[in-house]
Amino acid sequence: MTDYLWKNLFKRTPPEKALHAILRENILFEDLTSKQLRFVSNIVHLRKYSSNETIFRQGEIGVGMYIIVSGSVTISAQQANRGADKEAGKTIITRLGSGDFFGELALVEENGRRSATAEAAETTELIGFFKPDLLEILERNPLAGVKITLRLGEVLGRRLRETTERVSVLEEQLKRNRAE
Amino acid sequence: MYNRERIIKSAAVGGIIVLCALIILKVDNILLSFILAFVISYLLAPVVNAAERTGISRKVAVAGLFLFLTALFATGIYLLLPVVTAQVSALRSELPHFIDGVSKLLITAETRINAILSGVYQLDVSATANRVLSGLSGQMFEDLPRYTSSSLAVLILAPFFAFFMVLDGQAAAKKILELVPNNLFEPALNLKHRMNAQLGGYIRARLLEAGIVCLVVWLGLAVIGFPYAVLLGTFAGLTNLIPYIGPIIGAVPAILMTLVTGASGLTVLAVVAVYTVAQLIDNFVIIPLVVARIVDLHPVVVVIVIIVGAQLAGIIGMIISIPVACILKLTAMAIYEHLVEFGN
Questions:
Q1: From CA B196, how far away is CA B193, in angstroms rounded?
Q2: Are A89 and A58 in contact (CB under 8 A)?
Q3: Would the CA dihedral through B59, B54, A147, B188 be positive or negative?
């Protein structure tokens, strides 16, 4: 136990350099200078999940986003009106791998609920970046905060456009199906 | 393996909290030093953040600010010490007269009340009150050296703790959060953020209130030429930290002094006006604009919380009861949101 606590309190895993590299690869942090990245990496949280461990559940209040350092994550949604049998109504939406990120909507929502469930598909390491962290960056280093926020806006805009396109395609399909 | 990790993490968090609580509660002066350090750190954090925004490193900002404040504090003591010392020694020599005057006032009031009650009930409090007041005045000055040494320890320890709280507080909180199990991590982080925001806002608002009341009473009494303006202003500012009854306690010494010394009606009115203006500014400007936005507690809850605080920890309990109640309310809400509401 002593070794475990010692390791957790004083050892950085993965090393700081690796954390920088992962953050730099992410679209939200790609505009940051090395100094700003160092600042941000002191604020974000590194979390480790075992296989099948839930990261967050659909309906929970979301506080922020996660970037996958290693391992993979399954995103699934529970369909409404499926009664008590939760497994039956579960739809796997996607499986994300190293470098991918999810849950970014929670960074801008006020007490927004998670729209899906995220679960570690294997032993997975994640970087957690949460709304309080973004607020702290904006408060202490506004230049870095604005760069992240602009990129976040870009990501959310892209997601909205993709969703709108998908809805349009589905509407077209629905019309065609009705016509047939 | 991960279940074992989760248990170890939970035990570690619990252990750290219990250990800190034991040290704070059991070691002399630590509790007060910690409360004061928290207050100082919440007060200074926005200043350090503002300095950091200009590109100065946090270490330099914190060190520079503490050096500046130490110099400011030293200058303040240098300038105010002669005034305060003169007022304390004058008060010491005048106190027996004041107590005598208060005793006479009590006896007169008691006689009048007993005359009105005309035998239905016989009031007999003046003798006891006299004994208590005489004992208290003697003890107050006898205990002064002990209080001074204890205050000195707090005055040295509190800024020392505050320095590291401002410098490494966020990093330390992050380290403790690392030990929180994954399933509780997001609610814990959110709770910490909300507590920080609410406590910081509350502490800054209450100190602003106390500072303004202190200044208005001090200046007001000085303008009308009332004695002990510095001491009475400081006392009014400090007691103003106690919600509801604090302002009344703060005004009592000055009102009693006017009654005991047989001051003119105009002086009595002027003293009452000074305290009223201070409270008007506080109640109609500062509280609606600053405090009410921060603390979302019903007035009845506030009164109950203050009574409980007074029962548990006296005056300190009354002062810290509201922020403690806010923390408990936020924690309860977070647990409700995470477990009950989401569970449904």
A1: 5
A2: no
A3: positive
Give the start-to-end residue ranges of the domains of chain B: 1-180, 181-344
Q: What dihedral angle (degrees, nearest 10) is formed by the CA atoms of B32, B37, B39, B40?
A: 140
Q: Which residue segment(s) compose the domain that A45 sits in?
A: 2-179
Q: How far apart are CA A175 and CA B26, in angstroms?
A: 74
Query: Do B212 and B281 form a contact (C-beta atoms < 8 A)?
Result: yes
Query: What is the nearest CA distance from B2 to chain A, expressed in angstroms?
Result: 6
Give B171's contacts in chain A (Cβ within 8 Å). 42
The closest of B143, B102, B148, B151 to B125, measured between CA atoms, is B102
At residue B204, the pLDDT reads: 84
Looking at residue A9, its pLDDT comes to 43
The pLDDT, as a whole number, for residue B214 is 93
CA distance B162 to chain A (A): 19
How many whole angstroms separate alpha carbon B2 and alpha carbon A144?
A: 35
Looking at the DSSP assignment, which residues form a beta bridge with residue A66? Answer: A102, A128
Could you give the ipTM of this predicted complex? 0.80
- How many domains does chain A divide into? 1
CATH of the domain at A63: 2.60.120.10
CB nearest B189 (choices: A53, A63, A142):
A63
Looking only at Cα atoms, what is the longest distance across chain A? 69
